[in-house]
Amino acid sequence: MIAPELPGITEDILDSIAAEVPEYARPLEGSFGRGVRTGVTEALAQFVELIRDPDRGRERGREVYRALGRGELRQGRTLDALQAAYRVGARVAWRRIARAAREAPVDPEVLSALAEAIFAYIDELSADSVEGYAQAQSELEGERQRRRRELLAMLLSEVPVARADLEPAAALAAWSLPRSAAALACNEGDLGRIARRLPADVLAAPHQGAGCVVIPDPGGPGRGTAIAAAADGLGAALGPSGQVAKLAASWSLARAALRAADGAGAAPTELVMAEDRLAEVLVSENRVLIERIAARRLRPLGTLSPAARTRLEKTALAYVQQHGNAAAMARALHVHPQTVRYRLSRLRKLLGGSLDDPDGRFELEVALRASGVTVP
Fold first, then answer.
1. Exposed/middle/buried for 18, CB within 10 Å: 0-12, 13-18, 19+?
2. φ, ψ of residue 212 in degrees (nearest 5)
3. CB of 332 within 8 A of CB of 315?
4. What predicted TM-score, i.e. pTM, was given to this entire model?
């Protein structure tokens, strides 16, 4: 009963889809036309085969409808138009089949079961297309992320990449090259959460074992607040802003500032501005050299008891910070000026001329800071 009707049903469905679905209201030419016609023809043929043999299954035929779903994504459309076409097709097919059944005639119960089968079958086709659409989305997103990782690596390369070479890569990654930008470093595990909190124009990807976010125009209106909010509770370090060609330096300093903050004790839970931590970065990134300086400058204090050493270390740091002013040192240390003078006398005996030598004072301060000495 149904098979002889298939050619007429096919043309009726194609005409109705063109008339009722605006996105398909165009000549059925080229790949578009072939895809629509194939979809309709295969749907009807598979349906007839399933009626003849319900146990046959339709796994082999599903790819046609997955491909239709993928095609909708490639054309920049949602699935609304395709699903509307499926509904139109089901309605037209049922109308033609019902008319043929009445002429046959066919038992009403059989006709009712046939109607249920048609609309259940259309739901299956629609589900196949949704699967194809989602698969294509996943592939597209994976390709986009790959392009973005490649672009980020180019931006952070130690060997500068010409803007003329960056622009095509940025276009492929669907990212606009900014005039200025800064690099933000974070723990790789926090990258996703931080990136989601930032404006959509950032470029985020893992890089060199850390999480990296390239932030366009970080000094723009509201940007500072947004960046600080993104790092709140997680911790991150922001490198200096500058031309895109200098992003490698921004990234290097951001990573160094994050390492310095991590090494200072508890990991940071807020935004660290690399420009404000240059002294800490200097100490943190030159550990071997700093340890040699500390060994030389602080060795004379090694003979003291722990309590006495702590007192004299704090006094030495106060000395270099307050330029030797005993009254200012006493205020900083919360002790009597006479106590300061007594401690200075001991320091001079232990350290010799270091307190009066500019290089000695510099190295002494570096050694004390690297050892974690602070003046309350």
1. middle
2. -125, 135
3. no
4. 0.59
